[in-house]
Amino acid sequence: MPSLTRRLGTTGAVMALAASGLLFGTASPASAAAGCYGPECNGRNPADTSCANDARTIDTTWTQVELRYSPSCRAAWARRVGGINGGTDTLWVENSKGTAYSVDVPSNASGNYFTAMVDDKDLWARACDNLGSDGGYNCTSKY
Questions:
Q1: Residues 14, 46: one domain?
Q2: What is the C-alpha radius of gyration for the chain, rounded to an integer number of angstroms?
Q3: Are residues 23 and 77 in the same domain?
Q4: Which of 12, 32, 61, 100: disulfide with 94, CB 3.0–4.6 Å?
Q5: Would you indicate the residue range of the signal peptide (predicted)?
Q6: What is the pTM of this model?
Q7: Which of these, 126, 104, 106, 124, lies nearest to 114 by C-alpha position?
Q8: If we measure between CA atoms, which residue out of 65, 39, 37, 66 comes closest to residue 49?
């Protein structure tokens, strides 16, 4: 009988360790939470990390381009909610180190479009879009 009790106790301990992730070496929630931080976020898709989870809109242009910022990741990106009418538009995000990423939004597009992220740790970032044939551009404030 002690042998059965010992086996059940051992099996229970192994199952508890496996359930907690300690036995198989899975990442803890804290290490998997952000996915990147500051410079590690350069060029990464915010939707592929948890950076989008705590993102907030810092500023919006009159052409509906948003500067999005994640405090946990210390990263920023440009986003357009909804489409455009007319010609192709280009959105971009840039930071004060000169890092920039862009995305083209096709004519008569719908849905959300966003750029890759830039490092915003101890830097400023802003989101911009071109104004088509006018040759100008429109940007959010720097944050």
A1: no
A2: 22
A3: no
A4: 100
A5: 1-32
A6: 0.73
A7: 104
A8: 37
